[in-house]
Amino acid sequence: MKKHNSKMGQIDFILFATIMILVAIGVVMVYSSSSYIAAFKYNDPEYFLKKQIMWAIVGSILMVVAIKIDYHILKRYTGIMMVITILLLLVVLAFPAINGAKRWIPLGFASIQPSEIAKYTVVLFMAKSLDKKGERVKEFLKGMCPYLLVSGFYAGLVLLGSNLSIAAVIMIVTVIILFAAGAKFLHLFAIGSTLVAAVGALTIFEPYRLARLMSFRDPFADSQGKGYQLVQSLLALGSGGITGAGIGQSRQKCLYIPEPQTDFIFAIIGEELGLIGCTVIMLLFVIFIWRGIKTAVTCKDMYGTILGIGITSVIAIQAVINIAVVTGSMPVTGVPLPFISYGGSALVFNMIAMGILLNISRQTANEN
């Protein structure tokens, strides 16, 4: 292990800077989008800002720690992580539902969202196992199926807490990793089709999900009911125009968009910073994906490559889904915008994962 450490180069500075810029934008936009609702609900306009700054600092410290620790050490703890994640996903079911979903474990000073850990646990498991499996991943039964079963098990536990969106993210990331590891395209196409059918079935058989799907087709048909959130989001984006109304000037955050600091923060960015602001955010995510893939591809070993692709995919898929939902390109689903949406456990776990990705960037084949 020490040999690895002595050879470590510099972190990918572009990747590091992109992450920190996204986190900084997140802190500013959480304050801007939540100040009105925080003053109204908690009598303190900075209520959400203080928490987000605290979590950003905690996340940054843990990210720096992760940058310094050789990512190969994670192999030792993957089994323990898998067991802990299962326990947390079961414990969360014991607590009362919040907004119809059991996603949080309250700790008093904060709450943990086990589904945020589950995404990365699946990535760690796949990286460790595929590193050993090698070419045998091309087989269907012995190669691909074990991964789909394990990921499906974790996705199923997440689904028990009524969190279809994160369960879907886990399965999409699984397929991406299998593709990157060399699984046959025909096998993946069959699996992908089955997953789409499964999500479709889970949507149709759950009345509230079906209502969301119908309202997505024409949100203005029920603008005060099921289509309300999307209509308000589109109004925010539309009123922002090219340059936006200016930071702090959003009208939709004034109790029109429910919880504007969480899943629909991109709509407030569109309203306050306009098309230019939205384009900058999307460009930052594109840069992140580019540097993340570059880090994975130039890594010295298969383990680091799969780990890098998995971590990059988790962020990329969530960013794409969130922006698609807010712009009305897909049905409304509860996926936060990574680094930007308000949320402590999501930000902290994402930043630990970024530390691991940056550590991988220190150990690439062509140090640059």
UniProtKB/TrEMBL annotation:
Q: Which UniProt keywords apply?
A: Cell cycle, Cell division, Cell membrane, Cell shape, Cell wall biogenesis/degradation, Glycosyltransferase, Membrane, Peptidoglycan synthesis, Transferase, Transmembrane, Transmembrane helix
Pathways involved: Cell wall biogenesis; peptidoglycan biosynthesis
Query: Which top-level group of life is the source organism from?
Result: Bacteria
GO (cellular component) term, any one: plasma membrane
Q: Transmembrane stretches, by residue range?
A: 12-32, 52-71, 78-98, 147-179, 185-206, 264-290, 302-327, 339-360
- State a single Gene Ontology molecular function: peptidoglycan glycosyltransferase activity
Query: Where in the cell does this protein reside?
Result: Cell membrane
Q: What is its EC number?
A: 2.4.99.28
This chain's function reads: Peptidoglycan polymerase that is essential for cell division.
User: What is stated as this protein's family in its record?
Assistant: Belongs to the SEDS family. FtsW subfamily.
Q: What is this protein called?
A: Probable peptidoglycan glycosyltransferase FtsW
Q: Which organism is it from?
A: Clostridium estertheticum subsp. estertheticum
